[in-house]
């Protein structure tokens, strides 16, 4: 696997996933992107996570879910990728509560 975080970023930037939609990727391309993104998540985990790090991890998890779905992975695995996203976004500073939703909707209706 890719030991170096910067090397993973470069490989991701050069991967076809950056220039075409997931639906247009071949299965080997999807599998390679899946493994690469998983490695990026593993390499980016540390105790000094910032709000931006949580948001970035949510983005990566979203794409893992999309790739997992495209590869017809087990449903439980696909769901787990999506399930962690709201928690990461909340830790990143996004208020996903219904109270916030009501607050924003009521502002729009005034």
Describe the protein in words.
By secondary structure, the chain is an all-alpha fold. It has 6 helices and no strands. The chain has helices at residues 5-14, 27-44, 51-70, 75-83, 85-91, 98-109. Helix 3 (51-70) packs antiparallel against helix 5. It starts with a helix and ends with a helix.
Q: What integer is the average pLDDT?
A: 90
Strand content: under 5%
Helical stretch tally: 6
| Rg calculated over all Cα atoms | 16 Å
What is the straight-line distance between the termini? Answer: 54 Å
Pick out the low-confidence regions.
none
Number of strands: 0
**Can you give the helix content as a percent range?**
55-70%
Helix and strand content put the structural class at: mainly alpha
Features:
single chain; 110 residues; mainly alpha
Write the layout of secondary structure elements.
Blueprint: H1 5-14, H2 27-44, H3 51-70, H4 75-83, H5 85-91, H6 98-109
Helix pairs in contact: 1-2, 2-3, 3-4, 3-5
Write a brief structural summary.
Helices cover 69% and strands 0% of the residues.
